[in-house]
UniProtKB/TrEMBL annotation:
Biased composition (Basic and acidic residues): 90-100, 122-131
RCC repeat feature ranges: 177-230, 231-293, 294-354
Residue stretches of biased makeup (Basic residues): 74-89, 101-121
Name of one Pfam family that matches: WD40_RLD
Record bears the keyword ATP-binding: no
Positions of the UniProt region annotated as Disordered: 1-20, 50-166
GO MF annotation list: enzyme binding; guanyl-nucleotide exchange factor activity; nucleic acid binding; zinc ion binding
Keyword Transcription assigned: no
Protein name: Regulator of chromosome condensation
GO cellular component: cytoplasm
Gene3D superfamilies: Regulator of chromosome condensation 1/beta-lactamase-inhibitor protein II
Amino acid sequence: MFGDPDFSEPQQNEPSKGACRKCGYVGHLTYQCRNLIKLKSQKDVVIDISSTSSESETDTPIVAEEKKKLSSLMKKKKRKERKEKRKERAKNLDKDEKKSRKESKSRHDGKHYKEHKKKKTEKVTSKRTEKVSQQGSSGKRTLNVQQENHRNEQTVAKKKKPDKLSSEQFLPESDASDLFVCGVGDMGQLGLGDDVRECHKFRRVKFNDSNVKIRMVAAGGCHSLVLTDKNEVLSCGCNDEGALGRAVFEDDQEVDEDCTFAKVQFDQEDLNQHGEIAMISAGDSHGAALTVNGSVFIWGRFRGKNGALGLMVDQKTNKVISQSKTPVLLLSYKNHKIVKISSGCNHLMCLDEFGKVWTIGDGSDGQLGRIFRFDFDLESIRVTR
């Protein structure tokens, strides 16, 4: 019953369940079959992978195992080949990097670096800047070389100083013309006379000289300034703080010159030295004028929150000028050449030729654009006799 297995062909066409798949014998399993042992002992077993399908039903277990071994061997070979190729590429890259490093070191070392730089510049200039034209048919050729060094142009442009400003850039381009006014004139600021206190429509102003033409107008708080084509400054309106820049008749006189335009009293020597008037501006109680050379004259008074502030500090005496009824030199063109002036309510701003702004007046609300050094906050004190 438990004898040697019979290696003859099985009688059944299909092996029963639990029988050997190789020989179909029920007494042992497939891994115990002697046929498998004999096949394993054979060394010269050749399997064609292309002709047989992987792990098909007709293949024996031994054939499937051999196929797996061969496929694993092929995969290992491919991996080795890939690794070798990668190593070769890495070696080539390392060689190229070493060469480039050596070249860069040699370039940055003294003479080699300078020579390399010269070669580069020569190549660029030869490509971009040389334009060759051939003239003549007798074999004579003339070379017209136009050299344009862009780098030199850029460096020269950087070294150039900024263009200076001039007062001509800020002057009106239109020609001088007549003056027309309207509004409230209770202080005589319209220049229409003492009788006209209010004007709802524009009216033409009549001057003493009928040939006078106006180039510029500046409106203050209760006074007006105009610049004529003859570079003269005329003023009218309220003169309580000296804003008109001239003396006026008292109330006892028959004619009130506050209500008509009259000349601002400039010193002729100052005008000869600093030039004619080119620009004017007006604030609440002050007026200012700019000369052609770049000097600034001012008159009237600045007022602060707590009353009169003064006008300026005299540079010669270092004393505060509280009020001036005639123009006084504020800035000289010898120190700072001014090209434009502009007045606020109680401050004046001056722009010089280099673009810097100079300010003077009341700065309690930050209108001077700088730290206000003085504090004028006063306390009320009861005064007894």
